[in-house]
Amino acid sequence: MFQCPHRRCAGRRWSPAPSHDQKLRHTALAITYDGVVNISTQALLPKLRSYGALSLSALTLSALIIHPVPWCFDCEFPNAWGHVDGPADVVLSAWLLIAPFLAGLFGVRRGWIVPVCMVLAFLVTQPIGGVEWWSLRANEGPVIIMLGVPLTAASFGLGYLVRGIGILAKSIINRHPR
Fold it and tell me: What letter does residue 80 receive in the DSSP assignment?
């Protein structure tokens, strides 16, 4: 019985035992896979940390321009501004909280910009969605700012807190191995 030592195989067992050539070929494939994954993550992680805030903000703005989500505060009728909510609206609304969480979770440089950009992108795309300027200035705009900034900042803070707990747990585990 041969048990593979590589992480990729998760201890896969072979019965009967493979030949020496099969072991060498398998080892070469596993090393190549691990090498590619490690090299790519080492190359991409600094880029993600450096340009993550810009990327998340640009992605959100472009998604809201393509599919604007008009938001109505204190509307007395369904389908505000002639817009019927659909699954894309739910995804975009959730993204407005997920993006700041990801920025905090991955420790993105200048990550505090992401919550502000989420609110600004949502606010700027309201007229594209059909919200009238007078209503945006009088009703929706101030409410979007009053609710959006604290909620997205809390989401960013929660992501940062989860990251801190993970780093703390990792350091405790590394300091006290079993």
Answer: G
Report how far residue 129's alpha carbon sits from residue 136's, in angstroms, rounded to the nearest whole number.
11
Q: Report, in angstroms and rounded to the nearest whole number, the Rg of the chain calculated over CA atoms.
A: 24
Q: Tokens 């300091």 appear where?
A: 175
Name every residue whose Cβ is closer than 8 Å to that of residue 74 and which is 6 or more positions away in sequence: 139
CB 53 within 8 A of CB 113: yes
Which amino acid is located at 66 in the chain?
I
**CA atoms 115, 117, 122, 126: torsion sign:** positive
CA distance 131 to 153: 25
Amino acid in position 103: A
The reported pTM is 0.68
pLDDT band for 156, please (50, 70, 90 cuts). very high
